[in-house]
Amino acid sequence: MSMTDLTKLSAVEAGRKIAAGQFKSVDLVAAALVRAETLDDRLHAFALRLDEDALAEAKALDAETAEGKSRGPLHGVPVAVKDLCDMAGHPTAAGLPMFRDRTAKADATVVERLRAAGCVIIGKTELSEGALALHHPDVTKPVNPWRDDLWTGSSSSGSGVSVAAGIVPAAIGSDTGGSIRFPALCNGIVGLKPTWGRVSRHGVFPLSWTLDHVGPLARTVEDAAAMLQAIAGRDDNDSTTIPAPVPDYLAATGAGVKGLRIGFDEGYATDGVIPETVAAMKKALASLEGQGATICDYTMPDTSAANAAWTPICLSEAWSVHEELAVDTPEGYSEGFREALAAGKAFTGADYARANLARREFVGALDRVFAEVDLLLVPVTPNPVPTVEEFARICPDPEGLERLIRFTCLYDVSGNPTITLPAGLSETGEPLAFQLVAPRLEEARLFQAGKVVEEAFGFDNLAPLD
């Protein structure tokens, strides 16, 4: 296979071919590195490249393959991790230039687990400042490979771009208000935000302790399932991780949807939503019903208080993370990030308590919905994918930002898992997507339904860069 053909493979497909001896991990990793070298001066997806380390790891994994050993379906496959994740001996900048010399002493748990699964980490991807909304002015923003003027989805932008550009088939992102789902939407790929506590956050630089989720962005539903399989599970270094056993997520992708109840509240899911997203959701519903799922009406509980709770929770917790540095070295932050931290500082304990009460009430109301249905189908955002310039105007506007994130931040507040599925392109070339939402710890249902929807759309989600 040519180097270009190698970079078009999904992660699971590549792993199968390595296991079958059709090529070696070092061939696949070399192809990824060549593609990164060719494209990243334009796309700026990477904060740090690890070419020599990656090739050495690939050679070691090939030696294991030659001995008949395999670490699993991702053995020898190149991936990338968001530059919030510690890697021993390398900096974790977290989108902050003042952190570029902040060298990690140990690997984050998610990095350890990727390596244990046989993944080869070729680099660390760029992100917005402190994983909030906007990139630091001294950081070169990643560029959307579908259209240069389009937003890349903020925080996990580099991870999304690296997958859509065909540099890696999967990458790690994080999601506090939508930062796995927005890059998935904007870059036309799959994004999986797991249940809060399903994946360890040990060694991952925080934005908001109780809202942060770590999960994969990937080319296919199978790839997302295999990545979650690799990184999920209890971690003694993170007491918030859930001790429940990790199911066989990859097997779930072939389980079908017969008997699954898909909830669709048309009033909620279409309110102010662009017609092309509505049409895509209805196509998805038809495909799920055609494969044996039952489409159920339900009434979404009031979301206004839970959505409003996101800001005081996120920003007050961000202040708690950055307080010492913000006092001692305020010049290390952009003006916008300083303003966000000041807003977090200004929230009172009573504000935070009320926000968490609203969170608990919404979690209970959503649990009652999930007693009646197995999955919800909802938009990612009511808007079309904005341009970079449009997003810069939306971000400081409280009403505009609330509209943009009202279908995403809700499930960070509740901790429910979601999968974002690409649904092709609009007539004007913007990627389309929607999300499925599951009860806590029911990611397997997302993979069951996601695979059916993926096959129905048949969308080639590699951006046309060649």
UniProtKB/TrEMBL annotation:
Instruction: Extract one GO molecular function annotation from the record.
Output: catalytic activity
Tell me where in this chain the Amidase domain is found.
27-446
* Pfam families named among the record's database cross-references: Amidase
SUPFAM superfamilies per the UniProt record, alphabetical? Amidase signature (AS) enzymes (SSF75304)
Could you identify this protein by its name?
A: Amidase domain-containing protein
Source organism per entry reads: Roseovarius indicus
